[in-house]
């Protein structure tokens, strides 16, 4: 079990719920991570109409923007994604906008 950093808006949304797991099955048993992912994907795609969005795609988004907000610190990204290795976490980080062009333009000229 690990501790997660949660945005205060999420806590505000769930503060009135009873203690314990939020995701439950119809028989009141706890939903596992696969069930939660499948239900969230269904809700995103069918209920909200975001046909190309999935929980996995949101994980990539989260990794990319956490990495950017942490000023490129892969260790922060690794810990927030819960990965054992920075190499695994780096798979979830994409370059944003003109980051590649900006990096090239920032190089000093060797002349």
Short description, anyone?
By secondary structure, the protein is mostly helical. It has six helices and no strands.
Describe what this molecule looks like in 3D.
The protein is mostly helical and 111 residues long. It has a domain at 30-105. It has 6 helices and no strands. It has helices at residues 8-14, 33-47, 55-69, 74-81, 86-90, 99-105. The longest helix is centred in the middle third of the chain and has 15 residues, at 33-47. It is elongated, with a radius of gyration of 18 Å. The termini are far apart. The mean pLDDT is 90.
SS elements, strand count: 0
The main sheet comes to:
none
End-to-end distance, in Å? 54 Å
Strand content: under 5%
Alpha plus pi helix count = 6
Low-confidence stretches: none
Q: Structural class of the secondary structure composition?
A: mainly alpha
Give the overall average pLDDT: 90
Shape: elongated
Topology pattern, helix = H, strand = E:
HHHHHH
Please bin the fraction of helical residues.
40-55%
The Cα radius of gyration reads 18 Å
Note the main attributes of this structure.
51% helix
Write the layout of secondary structure elements.
Layout: H1 8-14, H2 33-47, H3 55-69, H4 74-81, H5 86-90, H6 99-105
């Amino acid at each position: 079990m690990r501790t997660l950093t949660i945005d205060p808006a999420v806590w505000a949304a769930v503060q009135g719920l009873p203690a314990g797991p939020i995701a439950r099955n119809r028989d009141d048993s706890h939903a596992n991570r696969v069930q939660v992912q499948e239900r969230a994907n269904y809700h995103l795609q069918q209920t909200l109409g975001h046909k190309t969005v999935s929980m996995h795609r949101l994980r990539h988004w989260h990794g990319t923007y956490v990495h950017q907000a942490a000023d490129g610190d892969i260790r922060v990204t690794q810990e927030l994604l819960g990965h054992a290795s920075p190499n695994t976490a780096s798979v979830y980080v994409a370059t944003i906008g003109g980051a590649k062009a900006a990096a090239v333009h920032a190089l000093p000229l060797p002349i």
